[in-house]
Specification:
Blueprint (H helix, E strand, L loop, with lengths): L54 H9 L5 H19 L2 H21 L13 H21 L3
């Protein structure tokens, strides 16, 4: 027969890390040259690009993406451009698609960062430049398209 421990803390143990091979946290070691220099604390807010990523926040945002208005407007514009291309003609549909890209560029340029999810990919200037070039390129190709 197995004997049980008779202490008051039987069955109670310290919680382990999330992973079995996770080392115990240790305080930071002092620098070899002496104590760390006194740096003034930063009171500036952390820019969005430098904020640490939180997997839970990313998961919540991806689940809320279906309710994001900018994704619906952009998708609707692409669907309208496709319907116009099928009903009226390829040239008209391409002009509508170019208009959607140019409207996206204006929206990205005007609204503050981080901006709408559908048109926010990188830095604001880069997003606006890519959308303007896309819209102008599609419009130019639609213009030279034979009737």
């Amino acid at each position: 027969m197995v004997k049980e421990r008779m202490s008051g803390a039987a069955g109670v143990r310290r919680a382990a890390g999330a992973h079995p091979h996770t080392p115990e946290p240790r305080p930071p070691a002092p620098l070899p040259d002496g104590p760390a220099p006194d740096l003034p604390p930063s009171t500036d807010p952390i820019p969005v690009e430098q904020a640490p990523l939180d997997p839970r926040a990313i998961a919540r945002a991806s689940l809320d993406a279906a309710r994001n208005v900018s994704l619906w407007w952009t998708s609707s514009g692409i669907v309208v451009a496709t319907v116009v291309a099928l009903a009226v003609g390829t040239r008209a549909g391409a002009f509508v698609l170019a208009g959607v890209a140019l409207v996206g560029a204006v929206v990205r340029a005007v609204l503050p960062s981080p901006g709408p999810v559908a048109v926010t990919v990188r830095a604001k200037a880069l997003d606006v430049a890519v959308l303007v070039l896309l819209g102008a390129g599609v419009a130019t190709l639609a213009f030279i398209l034979p009737r």
